[in-house]
Amino acid sequence: MFTGIVEERGIVKKVNEMKGGKELFISSSFVDEVHVDESIAVNGVCLTVVSFTDEAFKVQCVDETLRKTNLGTLEEGNSVNLERSLTLDKAIEGHIVQGHVDITGTVKKIERDEADILMTIEFPPEYDDYIVGRGSVATDGISMTVARDTGNSFVMAIIPYTWEHTNLKDKKVGDPVNLEFDIFGKYIIKYLEKRGIGTQ
Asked: What is 6-41 written as a DSSP string?
């Protein structure tokens, strides 16, 4: 479990093909603190450390993960958002994030509004019920607030600090982003659907 507060940007040092997926070798400042079997969110995807060296830790992604997230597009030199799993002495400063990506969205527009950078993310319309104004959505693992709900897209206002300390500043129009919708919202919608109460 995570909070969507990115600790740092890691760098993909190497990508290896493996049967049924890929291995990613990622460098970070905390590589000397990781351990095998540790869960780390990489662009919002909960992955398990399978080995590490002084320079990088290794995680494995199966084909299903590569299809459902943007990890399959990663190349050597790309930056990724990293967050280690929540501990009992760690404040929940974002929102509850599982590291289970629901869908990938697409960056449709990037514009500036004074200090904020406004990024519009488009997603499949069948997920519209999971987006509410001022609600939370994990975007590439970052706990973001929905500034505007515009149907099958939403706008998020990115403060300069978040822009500089995550990989959002590397994004271009057309790039995929991992989206995980709020878990409580998903439970509520499932509850209503099971009772025949329409959510459209």
From this structure: --EEEEEEEEEEETTEEEEEEE-TTGGG--TT-EEE
